[in-house]
Amino acid sequence: MDETNNLAPRERSVANSSESLQQRSPFLALDLMPREPHLLDYLLILRKHQWLITFFLLAVVAIVAIATFRMQPIYEATARVEVDRDTPNAFRFNEGDQGEDFGDLEDYIVTQSKILQSETLAMQTVRSMGLDHLPQFGGRPGKPEKIAPPGSDASLMRPPALGAFLGGLSIKRVPNSRLLDVTFEAADPALAARVVNAHLNNFIEQNFRSRFEAATQASNWMAGQLNEMKIKVENAEDARLEYERQNQIWTIDEKSDISTEKLGELEKQLTEAQGDRITKEAVYQLAQSGNYDAIAAVRESVVIQDILKQQTALSSQYTDAVAQYGPKFPKVLRIQAQLKDLPQAVAAVPELRQRAAEDVRRIELQPAVHFVGGGPARASAYEGALKLREACHLVTAEGHDADGILHGPLVSIQPGQTVVAIAEPGPALQRTREVIQALGEIGATVIEVGSATDGYKTAEFDEVLAPIVNVVPLQLLAYEASRRLGVDADSFRRDEPPYAAAQAGFTL
What we know:
about 500 residues, four-stranded parallel β-sheet, three-stranded antiparallel β-sheet, 18 helices, disordered N terminus
C-alpha cells in the first residue's frame, strides 16, 4: 500500500526558529541582563552631550556676569540712638517697682521702635527732604505734583515714595541695651546718611513735641483742678464763717495771729521812725546853729572835710593878703565879698547830684578817667582824680595840666574814654577850650565843670576861690561812680585787713 505514513519534512523559517529557541531557553542573553549603572556610563553620557553642556554653562555665566555688572550697588547708612523713659522714677519705695519699671521700659523701647517705623514719621521725613521728587522714590522730576483734595480716594492712597522709604528703612535693637540701630538703604551713600540723620531728627523733634504737649495738657488739667479746689476751699471758708456768725462763735485763728504780728512790726517801725526823726531834728538844730563839728556825718564825710580844709586855707591866704596889701586893696575887697557868697554857692552845687548820677551811668570808667585844668583849675583836676581813686579804688584816674596833656597823654586817650575838663575865666581858659575841642575830635566823652562851661556850671568866683566850688561836682561824680561800682566811698578799704593794717601806721 502506497498509503504509508511517511514523515514529510516541513520547512521552518530561521526567524521562527530563533524565536522559539529564545522562548524555550531558560536563560536570557548576556546583553539583556539588568546591572548597576557605572561611573563610566555617566562619563559616556557627559561626553556624548559635552557641547550642549558647555554651551549651557557659558550662557549661564554670561547672563549672571551681565546681570551683576548691570546691578546698581546698594549702600547702608546706620545711626544708633539711645531710648530712655521721659521721667524715670527716682524714688523707689518698693522693691517690686524695679520689675515693673523694667517691664515698662521694655514696652517703651518697643513703642519707640514702632514709632521709628511708623508711616506718619516716615511721611514727615519724605516731605521734609523732598524725597517724593526723586526718581528712586517714585518721583517724576520736572512734573508738578498734583495735590488731591482732602477726603478723595486719591488722598487716601499710599504715596509711592512712602513705600520706597519704608522698604529701605530697618530698625534693629542692640541686645541687652536701650540702643536702637536705624539703617537705611539707598544707591547714593550720601543720600542714605542724610535720610538717617533727618529721620532721627524728626523722631527727636516729635518726642519733644509730644512731651511738651503732654506737659501742657497736664499743666492745664492741674490748673483746672487747682481752680476747682480753690473754689471749694473758698466756699468751705464762707460756710464756716457763716456758721460761726450764726452760732456766735469767736475764735482767734492763725489769721489773727498774723495780723497781730504785722501790727507789732508796724509799731516797731513807728518807734524807729520816731527815733530817727528826733535824731535828724537834733542834727538840723546843730546845722542851724553852725556847730558842724558836732555832727557825726560832717566829721565822717570826706567831701565836706575837704571843702572845710580848703575854706580854712583860703581864709588863711586872705588874712595874709590883707596883712600884705591892706584891707582896701581892690583884689582883697573882691575876695572878701566872694568869701561871703561862697557858702551859698557851695550849698547850691549839690542840686546837680541827679545829673551826676545820670552822667556816671552813661560814661565809660575804664581803662582810665582823665581830669584836665589850666591855671588854678589844675589843682582842681588833680583833686578830682585823687577823689575818684579814693572813692572807688577800681577806677584809674589821672590829672593833667591844660598844656601838659597836649604833649603826650592826649595820644593815649581812646575814643569813648571819659575826660573831665575844669574851665574857669582866666589866662588858661583859651588853652582849656582848645583841649576840649581836640578831645571832641578824638571822640572822647568830655564832662565840663566850671563857671565858663555849659556843663556843670558853677557860680563865677575868682580863680583862687573857684576850686572850692568846683570840687563839689567833682566829689559828686566820684560818689556816684562808687555807687555804680558798689564801693563804699568813705571806707578807704579799711574793711580789708591788708589795707587796714597799712593805714594803721599813719593818720590823715
